[in-house]
Design a protein that fits this description.
- The chain is mainly alpha-helical and 109 residues long.
- It is built from five helices and no strands.
- It starts with a helix and ends in a 17-residue tail after the last helix.
């Protein structure tokens, strides 16, 4: 596999990992299929997993890594990198965290 092909596959896999994970964790899906599935799973282990983007991205990335890598050690690192890439994309889309200073005490308070 050429290096350009590898990076193209990796980039596509990161985007696909983010898309599928976001669909399962945060969206209702077409005809509310995903939200119904989440309600059906409830508070089970799998149901809780679908509420956590970071956790769910690990499982989604495990499948996507098969698209990129062919050897077991490559698959392991690709798996973690794809999940990390999806998590970074998810953070980029959120409102930035603003830390505001607390009021300063003046002498005599």
């Amino acid at each position: 596999m050429s290096e350009a092909s590898l990076w193209t596959r990796f980039g596509l896999a990161v985007l696909a990992t983010w898309r599928v994970t976001h669909l399962l964790a945060s969206e209702d899906g077409p005809a509310d299929i995903i939200v119904r599935l989440r309600a059906l799973l409830g508070q089970s282990i799998v149901g809780k997993l679908m509420d956590c983007f970071n956790c769910l991205s690990l499982w989604t990335a495990a499948l996507a890594a098969l698209f990129v890598s062919r050897k077991p050690m490559e698959w392991l690192f690709c798996w973690l990198a794809l999940s990390g890439g999806a998590c970074l994309l998810e953070r980029m889309g959120q409102e930035p965290v603003v830390i505001q200073p607390t009021s300063q005490r003046t002498e005599g308070e």
